[in-house]
């Protein structure tokens, strides 16, 4: 396998094409939480990198968890096709999820706790997120927690107005959870 083919297989496994979606969640959270102010480049970069790691690590672990089903129904995917070894995918996915918590810790220690909670949601989605309602709810919770991570980081850094964050952030995060879960339920009907 050429280096290009290997890169494309990893990109497909980690769903690199979807990176803007996850990064937009945390960036929107940073702006919302900061009441329009954005953190310094260092903290913003670390928060975005942490979000990217948990998202892409979760995607890799999701394919690892589905490898037997994919072997039967989607044999062209990177793991069942043999382009990427299952053991390697498991190690890389776990490393990315762990890195997300480490990167968040570089923002603030409490940000690491939030990211650890998000990582638990991601793992729950990957390993027990089956079913017509549980899967969409867990997906919505993951995306909403990623948005909430941005709000939380902004608050941790002293940006924005705590009263607004306490009042509106939970409402916006909850609405986003319902939106993502609803879209996911509808998508399953196609």
General description of the model:
With 190 residues, this protein is mostly helical. It contains 8 helices and no strands. The chain has helices spanning 3-14, 19-33, 41-65, 67-73, 86-107, 109-128, 134-156, 162-188. The radius of gyration is 17 Å and the shape is globular.
Number of strands: 0
What is the overall number of helices? 8
Mean pLDDT: 93
* Uncertain runs: none
Helix content: over 70%
H/E element string?
HHHHHHHH
Structural class: mainly alpha
| Integer-rounded radius of gyration | 17 Å
Q: Quote the beta fraction.
A: under 5%
Tertiary shape: globular
Q: Quick one: biggest sheet?
A: none
List keywords for this structure.
0% strand, 190 residues, mainly alpha
Quickly describe the structure:
The chain is mostly helical and 190 residues long.
